[in-house]
Amino acid sequence: MMHQNIEVILFELSRWFMIPVLGLIILLFLYALYMLGGFVTEWLQRSFTRAGCPVLNKLLAEDRSLQSEDLELSIMTELEGLRLTSRAAPLLGLVATMIPMGPALAGVAVGDMATVGEQVGIAFAAVIIALLAAALTFAMHSVRRRWRLTELRQWERRQPMPRDDSSTVIESEERLTADLRTATIHSYK
Asked: Is the separation of the CB atoms in 24 and 92 below 8 Å?
């Protein structure tokens, strides 16, 4: 008896999450489309002009004293929404797939194929939209990250190097290379 009560409670709780999960999937998909517009615009600008990175240019125009680490943090902040969407959307798609499976299986048990069709349709539609949002944002994140890090590296190379001690220059270059590698490794985790 206790076992059945727990099952009923879990079943009802999972059903309560269906609407919020579907709403989040729709929002993430709309976000992916919005970001796609900005991505295409930036790609076109990059194709026809050599203006560089608008984010880095804006930050440097506002504050010329920014260091490489500050710019790298700004890049990570800018790309965070794409990164989170590319990781969260598939998880929400899985949740939205699993919630309707309970009612669909119950419909199979009693022979109610209309319920089965409706629930499975919801599950498939939700996971497709979630995966599309994830695929779009993952691709945009990867390309924009490469663009930003390439431009950051170019900016760093244009910066004047200290002239007083050659070992300081070498240490600075080694530290910068290690920082970029660490940032690259951490962004894939």
From this structure: yes
